[in-house]
Amino acid sequence: MSLSIKDLKVYMPAKDFEQSKRFYAALGFKMSEGWGGATDFELNGNQFRLQDYYVKDWADNFMVVMGVDDADAWHQHVRRIAESGEFDGVRVKPPEVVGDSLVLHVVDPSGVLLVFVQ
What we know:
2,3-Dihydroxybiphenyl 1,2-Dioxygenase, domain 1, 4-stranded mixed β-sheet, single chain
C-alpha cells in the first residue's frame, strides 16, 4: 500500500473578506467560489481557500511559503499593489538573502505572512 496526497488546500483567514479577495486577485490569483461561503484562489495549479473568518492571534501567526522563480519581480509587483493605498495593513520588505535563497516577506491585509522564496 502506498499512501499519497492528490491535493492540499489551506484555509486562510480574512479580516475584511472583500478586501482580501481583491488583494489576492490583484496578486494574480484566479478567484472562484469555494465551499460554505469561502472563496478559492489558484495560481499555476497552487490553491488556497480564503474564508470570511478572522481571529487576530491566528492570522498573526499564519504563514504561507511559496517557491518562486523571481523574488525581485514579485517584490516589484507587490510593492505597486501596496503603494496603491487600496489595501489596509499590507507591508512589503525588500528581498533578502537567506542562506542560498532570496526571500521576500509580505504581510497581507489580515496580517498573514506570505514568504516568497527563490
